[in-house]
Amino acid sequence: MTTSIAVPPGRSAVLTGVGGYVPPTRVTNEELTARLETSDEWIRTRTGITARHMVSPGTATSDLAVEAGGRALKSADEPRVDALVLATTTPDRPCPATAPEVAARLGLGTVAAFDVAAVCSGFLYGLAAAAGLIAAQIADRVLLIAADAFTTIVDPADRTTAVIFADGAGAAVLRAGHADEPGAVGPMVLGSDGELGHLIEVPAGGSRQRSTGLAAAPEDLFFRMHGRDTYRHAVEHMTTASRQAVEQAGWRGMADVDRFAAHQANARILTTVADRLEIPEGRRLSNIEHVGNTGGASIPLLLAHSARAGRLAAGHRLLLTAFGGGLAWGATTLVWPEVGTF
């Protein structure tokens, strides 16, 4: 079951700036193979990744978010917003939310600020929340950040996840505008399936495990993923949601998609989804080779990198889609506006 959110008449969320950030520590496949039973070829052929960035000791999600958020504000030439939404799976601590601290460090004052938890679909769920604030006239401008220090919850000895996940942040500034102008967020298609939540999870550390009064097994404190089943559901739901978003946007079909920006899960998923949608290779945006899977940050980070590299230009009709734990997924469309790149 998916939820479709139509663009309200007269007042829509319009993207005016983007920013991205990855921590300076770069880890190549060769560095990982030194401690894991794998090879550079195995990693590249199964994931499409050659390197990824990881936080250094003492660096938290808020540090990544502040960097990306500041760049997005600069891109939009907008020093002030009315609200901040932070999508993350790796908050600095369970309580309080990380967003208010990020807002304070960015000098935004006492604006509304809250976290959204939708794992790798976090940016799209955050986009829906930001668009809702604008449509309801609660805010005229919203800073949306997706940031994850995913390596802090990945078992460094588990080659199925340690070679894929990485750290980074991406951000977008949204303002109130009209549905027919460049940058306006199109209809949102969102869905979830909690019956399959066990496919992507960190089993321990929450209230269910803590309420038992028993210490968590060490392995249950790490992220785990059932790769084969996750692949199947990711392909199915991203493909279906993408088709629905394009149809609801009133586009003629996938031939109208100039650029396809999917959550950078792994190269196999990206290729399969794009192939099923019949989107030509030249229209597929990707940066997974150099940054890995950065969780919820992957789509805005991809947009920032693609815009800076000239792969994404004003006027391009853009299709976004993501899939992650929950299970949760989503898709939407927009026409890329003129934005500054930093």
TrEMBL record:
Enzyme Commission identifier(s): 2.3.1.180
CDD domains, A to Z: KAS_III (cd00830)
An individual GO BP term: secondary metabolite biosynthetic process
Residue ranges of every copy of the Beta-ketoacyl-[acyl-carrier-protein] synthase III N-terminal domain listed in the record: 114-194
Record carries keyword Cell membrane: no
Entry keyword set: Acyltransferase, Cytoplasm, Fatty acid biosynthesis, Fatty acid metabolism, Lipid biosynthesis, Lipid metabolism, Multifunctional enzyme, Transferase
Catalytic reaction(s) noted: malonyl-[ACP] + acetyl-CoA + H(+) = 3-oxobutanoyl-[ACP] + CO2 + CoA
Entry annotated with the keyword Methyltransferase: no
Region annotation (ACP-binding) ranges: 264-268
PANTHER family in UniProt: 3-OXOACYL-[ACYL-CARRIER-PROTEIN] SYNTHASE 3, BETA-KETOACYL-[ACYL-CARRIER-PROTEIN] SYNTHASE III
Listed name of the protein: Beta-ketoacyl-[acyl-carrier-protein] synthase III
